[in-house]
């Protein structure tokens, strides 16, 4: 790790906008994004397809200038100070541009040659568990192994800020876990990680803070727990037999019947569940397949994605103590 002075936020964006095209064909993919990525944290940027995640990351990486607003990366302007930012940043794009004809070792050597202070190739092979594939051509690797080569290149310059665009897409569950370990290890080393992912369990496990982007705007923002708070809990069971109906229960906001299951949403899981169970005991009813869940990131995300978000928040700057 270099000894540059650290800023409180590795990435800060205010009112960030990005428009593709001009005139009547112009399309605004990023519509005023405010983002604070605290130094030393892992922040996950989530969003539906086309929400604007890659468009936002490209501005942060200095690959494109914003059409509005400001962005600072490691305290610098990622476009004007591109060389300085690039030296201190590792970027994993969705698709790497490496030639598949080179071996893994040759690819790492070649990439290392573009960096001012690369870590040794053998260290990177060991870090990404690629030693046994070192002399294999990249085009013969599995998807997971090829992604690990991309990651090795991203991390080879020992970056302070690591930007990962969907690092685990296409990986099997075991490889995904390995990437999670690696990302957590980066934080232990003091690096800051900004990651996009379509896997909500990944974001929930890994991230200190989550930003949900929808149609070019940040619509939810906070720790996974903060994001889920205020969202309804869910109780479901196999539909009651015969003519029995679900009784009126405290806290329930809606009841739905689908594919032989009854699902209740409630603002007070403990009270609703308690009343449901005592009603079932009094009437000697068996609630087959009973499942009770607190709100999860997944339920919030799905609500945002299909426009049912009951609790849209105006994202606020990070407050002291909101960082896990
Ligand atoms: N070069 C481009 N020209 C015009 N429109 C573009 C261009 N690149 C992206 N877009 C549009 O901008 C919007 C945001 O795209 P972006 O790739 O940033 O979304 P994303 O959140 O990364 O999506 P995904 O999860 O599918 O990767 C989309 O509607 C996309 O079609």
Total helices: the number is 10
Strand line-up across the major sheet: 5-6-7-3-8-9
Largest sheet: 6 strands, mixed
Bound molecules: adenosine-5'-triphosphate
Structural class: alpha/beta
Q: Count the beta strands.
A: 13
- Binned, the helix content reads 25-40%
CATH C-level category of the domain at 9-98 and 160-172 and 182-228 = Alpha Beta
CATH architecture identity of the domain at 9-98 and 160-172 and 182-228:
3-Layer(aba) Sandwich
* Alpha-carbon distance between the two ends: 23 Å
Q: Under CATH, the topology of the domain at 9-98 and 160-172 and 182-228 is which?
A: Rossmann fold
Order of helical and strand elements:
EEEHEHEHHHEHEHEEHEEEHEH
Mean pLDDT: 88
**What is the percentage of strand-forming residues?**
25-35%
Rg is 23 Å
Organism: Kineosporia corallincola
Membrane topology: Peripheral membrane protein
Keywords: Antibiotic resistance, ATP-binding, Nucleotide-binding, Transport
Protein name: ABC transporter ATP-binding protein
How does this structure look, described?
- GO terms for molecular function: ATP binding.
- There is one protein chain.
- The chain has about 325 residues and is an alpha/beta fold.
- Among the domains are: about 10-100 and about 160-170 and about 180-230, P-loop containing nucleotide triphosphate hydrolases (Rossmann fold); about 235-295, Alpha-Beta Plaits, CATH 3.30.70.
- Helices cover about 30% and strands about 25% of the residues.
- It has helices at about 55-60, 80-90, 105-110, 120-125, 145-155, 175-190, 200-205, 225-230, 270-280, 295-305, and strands spanning about 10-20, 25-40, 40-45, 70-75, 90, 160-165, 190-195, 210-215, 215-220, 235-240, 250-260, 260-265, 290-295.
- A six-stranded mixed β-sheet has the order 5-6-7-3-8-9, sandwiched between helices. It has a four-stranded antiparallel β-sheet with strand order 11-12-10-13. It has a three-stranded antiparallel β-sheet with strand order 2-1-4, with helices on one face.
- A hairpin with a 2-residue loop joins strand 8 (about 210-215) and strand 9.
- Helix 3 crosses helix 4 (about 120-125).
- The protein starts with 8 loop residues before the first strand and ends in a 19-residue tail after the last helix.
- Mean pLDDT is about 90; it is low at about 315-324.
- Bound molecules: adenosine-5'-triphosphate.
- The site of adenosine-5'-triphosphate has 12 residues, from strand 2 and helix 1.
